[in-house]
Amino acid sequence: MNPEELEQLKELIEFLKENQIGEFALERGDLKVSVKFGGEQAAQSGMDLASLARLLAMQPSAGAAAPAAPAPAPSVAAQVHGSAEAPAAAEPDEDADLHIVKSPIVGTFYESASPGANAFVKIGDRVEAGQVLCIVEAMKLMNEIESDAAGEVVKRLVQNGQPVEYGQPLFALKQV
Predict the structure, then answer these.
(1) What's the rounded Cα separation, in Å, for the pair 28 and 46?
(2) pLDDT of 38 above 60
(3) Partner of 86 at 20 to 30 A CA spacing, among 11, 143, 150, 171?
């Protein structure tokens, strides 16, 4: 790795820290970088996607980048530490006590591991913190989205196969 590439890598790591990105993997040709920060860092800040895109354009070579576990893992378990605020479309009185699980990445929402398989969770199911709620596919990687709180699933806020944005509410949980 030449000094210029090393400097770009340092800049990328600083960007990830500033935006509280918990995990990140980058693969370009024979270069593989995987960063995982400890503590309470999570993908919850108002990350500037344009800045991240500029940083990822370090080299003109083709490559894939996505929040992920170390390279050998076929899927990733991502936790979202969302706030208890209700989505804008919902009535504040009705949903004020609900915990919202948000998407940590841009991708496509899937309720089950494969077409025709049972959904990971249904409305009315009790879930524990760390339990898989759904999959968000991003760049051909199936990312398992885990619940960051225990409770009862009271709403699924997206449809199967629907594109989702970073920070978009996916589920509403009634914490018990």
Answers:
(1) 26
(2) yes
(3) 143
- 122-137 pLDDT tens trace: 999 999 999 999 999 9
Alpha-carbon distance values, 27 to 92, 109, 163 (Å): 43, 24, 24
Whether 76 and 144 have beta carbons less than 8 Å apart is answered as yes
Contact criterion met (CB below 8 Å) for 89 and 161: no
Asked if 105 and 145 count as a contact pair (C-beta separation under 8 A), the reply is: no
As a residue count, the chain comes to: 176
pTM: 0.47
pLDDT one-digit tens code per residue, 54-64? 555 554 444 44
CB 111 within 8 A of CB 120: yes
Closest by alpha carbon to 103, among 78, 72, 68, 121?
A: 78
pLDDT at 64: 42
Looking from the CA of 15 toward its CB, the CA atoms found within 13 Å total 17
Q: How far apart are CA 96 and CA 93, in angstroms?
A: 6
